[in-house]
Write a structure and sequence with these properties.
five-stranded antiparallel beta sheet; extended; binds adenosine-5'-triphosphate
Length: 602
């Protein structure tokens, strides 16, 4: 029975009518709303699209998930970080495999670094830039029947003078589970790199601080290989060096069986410009070794940086540390650096170690650890150069750390003649059939070289200096012969003048330091006496009326002499140059300015 309808009276009661009408109305309205919605094709199509879109998106995500699963299960991914030598290998490999053809993003580098993996953009030698693909978008290609995918990511952070830099990382995924395929790929990339770099010596330089995991050899240069014959040293020096290094490389098995770490250290020492660095580059070119170079005088190179750098070098390569004496204190350096420090910013670390008398943040023990440590084993050659061998600690020079020392000297007459001959050899071909030049016909080259050496005193000039002179008259050997005597005379005179100025400057610096130390001492005595209620001078002395006089107790223990007090009530450390001559109480600032001006003017 219908609760809202009274069949007897056939009337609806007031309350039941209201309820019924509401519910029916809602049903009718809802139905009609839905009917109207679905009868509207626009809305219906939108819903269909929405459902379809959701299905497609789900499908896409499912596919992505499956691909990721597949990749994870059936591929090997290798990571190549910029700054590591293997990064260079893989970039060259990708360039040679023409993977870049589908690239849209390129990094443009000036060609001066002779990078070997920039893509060819036209006929050989065209343009002054390298175009290096960045692989921002993943690329797929086939190699030896395997699918490889290349992706780029972000690597370790470095900091240069221009701010932080983000090194790049290249990920190579190979769709196989065979690790041998990956090692084959890396080995092939390495061999191709060596082949391409053969006419050059590859030099990795760490010239930026690195943060985070990994290590960045931030700069790579390819220098033209220099023939050993172009290095002019005393007879037999370079040959014995090359022979020694070659023997070391060839005798790895012997080192292992003898239980001796397979590394060897060389120290090349002598005046600047005598060919130390050139020798190492020529030797690396001859033996096909890469050079990893860093300078201890770079402010950011400390013990941990050095350790990381040494451990990230590959086998059979050279670790080159130039100016190794920077890690050792020298009193002269403190004097020399003082104006620099006062001039302004040097960096907190730099200030700390420079104040300690060193130019480097690397400590001796840090350096020895690197030479002895794990990072230095495995067929690594360690080369160090210095202009000041006497500053080196004996601990560094002991066999096992430095196995061979080579002394470089200023040029002898013989070296000067060899340099001259090398310089003008092209103008004076040795072959009999070579076309003659007028100069050649006039005087033979050997004779000219002999004449040239008459104007060069033994052991006075470096090879670099003589080379500089020859460059100024490179078109005419006769001109060089004619000008050498006056050039040496002028150079020697200038050198003497410079030495006099330098000696004077050092004297002034020493004097200044002694004065400062005396002032410090006086200040501390004054403070001590002031604290005890005493003064080093009677009150009249402090006012400048009386000079000299013994140290006497102050007349009033509670009130120290105002001459030793600054505005804050503390005793002033700067009063006089000499406690036995307290009359010089006037303008210290003026005197300091005079000192520094005269120092700078020197
Ligand atoms: N013995 C040499 N034989 C040939 N060239 C030399 C020789 N010495 C110097 N030079 C020339 O002089 C320049 C500087 O040489 P290099 O940098 O090798 O000297 P260095 O001894 O390492 O100097 P520094 O101690 O200042 O580093 C180079 O261009 C090099 O060609």
């Amino acid at each position: 029975m219908d609760p809202f309808f009274d069949h007897n009276t056939r009337q609806l009661t007031q309350s039941s009518w209201g309820d019924w009408s509401t519910s029916s109305f809602t049903r009718i309205i809802g139905f009609s709303f839905l009917t109207s919605v679905f009868s509207n094709t626009y809305v219906f199509d939108s819903v269909k699209l929405f459902v379809l879109g959701s299905v497609i998106e789900m499908g896409r995500r499912l596919c992505q998930w499956l691909i990721e699963r597949f990749r994870f299960q059936y591929s090997i991914t290798a990571q190549f970080d910029e700054g590591d030598p293997s990064y260079e290998w893989i970039v060259l490999f990708l360039t040679q495999e023409n993977v870049w053809r589908r690239s849209r993003d390129f990094r443009v580098n000036a060609k001066n670094s002779k990078r070997k993996w920039g893509i060819k953009t036209g006929p050989e030698g065209k343009g002054n830039a390298d175009y290096v693909p960045t692989y921002e978008e993943p690329q797929l290609f086939r190699w030896k029947g395997y699918w490889l995918e290349i992706k780029r990511g972000k690597g370790a952070q470095t900091v240069s003078h221009h701010g932080p830099n983000q090194a790049a990382t290249i990920y190579v995924s190979i769709y196989t589970l065979d690790m041998d395929v990956l090692s084959d790929l890396v080995e092939e990339a390495r061999l191709r790199y060596i082949e391409v770099s053969r006419p050059n010596v590859t030099v990795y330089i760490a010239d930026m601080p690195t943060y985070g995991p990994g290590f960045v050899w931030s700069n790579v240069k390819h220098k033209a290989r220099r023939p050993l014959s172009s290095i002019i040293l005393l007879d037999g020096v370079i040959d014995s060096l090359v022979k020694d290094a070659q023997e070391f490389i060839d005798s790895e098995a012997w080192y292992v069986s003898a239980g001796i770490p397979h590394r060897r250290g060389y120290l090349l020492y002598g005046p600047p410009g005598t060919g130390k660095t050139s020798t190492i580059y020529a030797l690396a070119g001859e033996l096909g070794l890469e050079i990893y170079s860093l300078s201890l005088s770079s402010g950011f190179v400390d013990d941990s940086f050095l350790q990381k750098a040494a451990s990230s070098m590959p086998k059979n390569s050279i670790l080159l540390i130039e100016d190794i004496d920077c890690a050792f204190p020298s009193r002269d350096d403190v004097d020399d650096e003082e104006p620099l420090l006062n001039a302004g910013f040097q960096g907190m670390v730099a200030q700390n170690y420079r104040r300690s008398g060193r130019k480097s943040a690397v400590t001796l023990s840090g350096l020895l650890n690197v030479i002895d440590g794990v990072g230095s084993e495995e067929g690594k050659l360690f080369f160090a150069t210095t202009n000041y061998v006497d500053r080196l600690d004996p601990a560094l020079l002991r066999p096992g750390r430095i196995d061979k020392k080579v002394q470089y000297q200023l040029a002898t007459k013989g070296q000067a003649a060899a340099l001259f001959t090398r310089f003008f050899a092209e103008m004076y071909p040795t072959s009999e059939e070579s076309p003659a030049t007028t100069e050649k016909d006039a005087i033979p080259l050997a004779k000219l070289a002999e004449n040239f050496t008459e104007g060069v005193p033994d052991h006075e000039f470096s090879t670099a200096e003589l080379q500089g002179f020859l460059l100024s008259c490179k078109r005419s050997p006769k001109e060089a012969v004619a000008g050498i005597a006056s050039w040496t005379e002028k150079e020697l005179m200038e050198r003497q003048q410079k030495e006099t100025r330098e000696a004077k400057r050092k004297d002034m610096l020493r004097e200044k330091r002694e004065k400062q130390e005396a002032r410090k001492l006086e200040g501390s005595i004054a403070r001590t006496l002031g604290g005890m209620g005493m003064s080093i001078y009677p009150p009249a002395t402090a006012s400048g009326l009386v000079t000299g006089g013994p140290v006497v107790p102050s007349s009033s223990p509670q009130t120290p002499s105002p001459a030793y007090e600054d505005s804050s009530g503390k005793s002033s450390p700067v009063v006089s140059d000499d406690i036995t001559n307290p009359a010089r109480t006037t303008s210290e600032a003026e005197e300091n300015v005079t000192d520094s001006v005269s120092t700078n003017s020197l």
